[in-house]
Amino acid sequence: NFGSNTLSGSGDIIVVEADEFDRSFLSLQPSMSIINNLDLEHTDCYQDIDDIKDAFISFANSSQLDGIIGICIDDTNVKDIISKLKLPYRTYGTTSDASIRADQIKFSGFNSSFKLIQDNEFIGNINLGVPGKHNIQNSLAAITIALELNISIDIIKIGLEKYNGVKRRLEVKHQLKNGTILIDDYAHHPTEVEASISAIRKSFKNRIITVFQPHLYSRTYNFYQDFAKALSLSDVSILLDIYPSREKPIKDVTSELIYNEMLKLGYDNILLNKDISLIPKMIQDV
């Protein structure tokens, strides 16, 4: 709710979003850290999933000796690195073995709620103004660190109720009188795409039309099969040309890789778009 990607407060705590791209997060030595999920990504920087796991292990173990690590045990890859952590950690998630967990999760429109359990004891009802299981997990991450900082559950609940999301993460751009909702989301990895579409699917009864522009040739090549599975959660998908960003074209790597894979999966409600100006008409026609 800051209206910016930075905020200068008056306290003695600095909160940073660490980015694993180009291993820049290894320059940090946090007092506390959170590892929410771990996927194969940035294949121009990492050889494989084990290389990424090793980097996250180094990141977690670089925390100060009196610190603590928050670990989401819903994620299989995150669970895999727990045995190699050298510092104290606290688990959170939606499974029964999590120390901090969400129970009886409910979704309704852009609202979510759950019962907060700490070490198998109920400590409060949590209400969020954002949808999706991934946002439940994000809130549990914040709760885990807040409790370690001895912030009261009442203050935590108030803070979470005020949170209304961030720009380009399930951001509502327009709502039409006919019930159509136009949402902008920056999901550019298959796991993120699946999480965003699933969040909308669980919270609304509307038909879902996804307009997707792949980001990077290398990412499209490495994950086109996973993108196809994720996008198949939509009722209709419109694929745009790849956004190259920092990359040069790779021979035979186009959005058609995803398109053809979706057809193999038996999903035929998909359109290829070569002219962005035609998107409004394409949406209207479907």
UniProtKB/TrEMBL annotation:
Domain called Mur ligase C-terminal: residue spans: 168-263
Start and end residues of each Mur ligase central domain: 12-146
Any coiled-coil regions, as ranges: none
Record GO terms (molecular function): acid-amino acid ligase activity; ATP binding
The protein, known as: UDP-N-acetylmuramate--L-alanine ligase
